[in-house]
Amino acid sequence: MKLLTATVNYKTPDLTMKAVRTLMPELNGLSSKVIIVDNDSQDGSAEKLREDLVKENWGDQVILLESGRNGGFGYGNNCAIRYVLATDDLPEYVYLLNSDAFPEPKSIQTLVEWMDAHPYVGIAGSAIIDESRQPFVNAFRFHGIVSEFESSVRFGPLSWLLAEHNVVIDPMPTEACEVDWVGGASMIIRRQMLDDVGLFDEAFFLYFEETELCLRAKRKGWPTWYVPEAAVGHIGCASTGAYSPDRRQPNYWFDSRSYYYRKQFGPLYAGVADAAFLAGQSIWKVRQLIERKPRRDPRFYVRDFLSHKLGLPRWPE
Q1: Where in the chain is the domain with CATH 3.90.550.60?
Q2: Which end of the chain is more exposed for a tag (fewer CB within 10 A), N or C?
Q3: How far is residue 28's CA from residue 297's CA, in Å, rounded to a whole number?
Q4: 279: exposed, middle or buried (Cβ count in 10 Å: 0-12, 13-18, 19+)
């Protein structure tokens, strides 16, 4: 098999089917299989998906798996990957497609051909565009102590000085280039790399799992590239709503952030990263008060961060 596509559904069956319907014409000519994993939605999603798949008549090219529990993004994708790895028809590549992401014409072919031409690359991510065809950010540097301070303090001259530490690569590259990590909404992975590095760490429920996989891959000599010639439409946060200033940041985001730093850099580094985040946020809060700047973070962001660190209940609404 050339390509396995994995799509994880959680309470978005209509979006998931739209994503798969958009995907299928792009797989023409490829030896491929699509696996939809329902992450224990418990809202009738699995039944709805099963009915829709029968109507589409794609046969065994598209399979629905029920994971049995909502173990998160990495867990759901691992279910699909393990299912195929247990067969004799191993994929050369694994393509991850969010349930709210829709491939543009020739995007999948572009990614596959690009990976074929660059056998040393372990992971590649496509350009991500919104409904008005404006680009989302999808080319990143690894998180670290300096980036925690820079992203929290929000001070233009300082951000300019620390540009090489910004997590977001700005401006977005217009040509294919090596980056530290790309988002999992549209990501192609070489199976040989997974054999070497391993699958997603399922201790991450959501967020930082693709960052951590790209870091493990880079340390093993498998770089990640951003390939803007391939484009995928994306609604963004259809299942989670994270990063919204109108909501609180989910606890699992704080869990994932802490686990990422502790696992990959150790508890001392994690503690310094936390201190850098709080220092930057403190300066930002003072500037926000004095200059009457609008709030940009999720509600109760710093309070929820501190509550999480101290193991205390969340601040009440």
Answers
A1: 3-137+172-234
A2: C
A3: 43
A4: middle
Query: Do 73 and 150 touch, CB atoms closer than 8 A?
Result: no
The whole-angstrom separation of Cα 237 and Cα 251 is 16
Paired strand residues for 233? 102, 129
Contacts of 16 (CB under 8 A, 6+ apart): 7, 9, 36, 45, 49, 99
Neighbours of 165 (CB within 10 A): 18
In this structure, whether the domain defined by 3-137+172-234 belongs to CATH 3.20.20.70 is answered with: no
User: Is residue 94 within 8 Å of 161, Cβ to Cβ?
Assistant: no
Hey, which residues does 126 pair with through a beta bridge? 227
Backbone angles phi, psi at 169, to 5 degrees: -80, 115
Nearest Cα neighbor of 175 from 227, 139, 218 is: 227
- C-alpha distances (whole Å) from 200 to each of 29, 125, 216 are 29, 16, 10
Distance (Å) of CA 116 to CA 2, 123, 230: 11, 12, 14
The pTM assigned to this predicted structure is: 0.94
